[in-house]
Amino acid sequence: MVNVLPALKRLRRIVPPLIALPLLASVIQPPRYGGELLARQAQLVFTPLALDADDPARRRLGELLYLGGWAVQSADARFGGLSALHVDDGDAIALSDGGDLVRWRLGGGAATIQPLAQGPGAAFTKRNRDSESLVAGEGRLWIGYEGANEIWTYDPLTLAPLGRAAPRAMAGWGRNAGAEAMARLPGGRFLILEEAAAGADGTVAALLMNGDPADPATETAALRYRPPAGYRPVDVAALADGRLLILNRRFSLFGGFTAKLVMARIAGGSIEVEREIAHFAPPVVTDNYEALALTQENGRQILWLASDDNFNPLQRTLLLKFELGG
């Protein structure tokens, strides 16, 4: 590495300090946290997966029909930690909990990774930019930040911020519990779920917002959700009829990661589970499933599932495709 500090020190003698200091900061900061605004290209490698390694022909899991799955890798160190997913017309947008958006065309290997350069906190660190939930639509992206308990909205191309809010009802949610799951409901309302261990009554907090969650003036109603025992909600998606698919995850030292997908509906002040759709546990391929997306293909309801590898070499980024009710 070329040592640029002596030259910058000489520069400060002839350039006013207010100019020289920003120059110094821009050079010595590492690129990952230095405010790099330009998107970077990356190559993704997709390795096909069987739903059940013990029974490679298996395609049925509960009410889901397995259409394909892949372990996804990239040489780019920024790829991973996928916590939310949006799929539309063959284009995928994944949100990492490190504050990056990953975009690619389904069926292709070329991807774009772009950082959320503006968000909660003064520093570009996971503590401030723990981005966990994503909704895309109407020419904007809504992103929920777990640690900050804030919702921001961005231009989908430039990622320039368009609005932000810190809902008062989320103020008491824990640093590792807030805005984990978010969905836009038919009619424009938003649902946000807390990721937390269930309280004494077996429920966790949720918010029903009567409009844009990044607008501080939006009215909010408190709800309660009862996840499957021992599980925590990590993502949610809304069906056209207003019902909800909620992804719930559990981790145990000896059992590893398991997940349960349930169908639910909003009823009064609660979210009521109607039934279990699928249970992800060995011998079915499992990891830290956190991201859920719904789309349509030729009249079929398609469900996508992605895992968060926590940037841990012992885990994998998995992408699974199912038909709901197939």
From TrEMBL:
Q: Which SUPFAM superfamilies match?
A: Calcium-dependent phosphotriesterase
Domain spans labelled Phytase-like:
78-311
User: Sorted alphabetically, which Pfam families does this protein's record hold?
Assistant: Phytase-like
**Protein's name according to its UniProt entry:** Esterase-like activity of phytase family protein
Q: Which organism is it from?
A: Allosphingosinicella flava
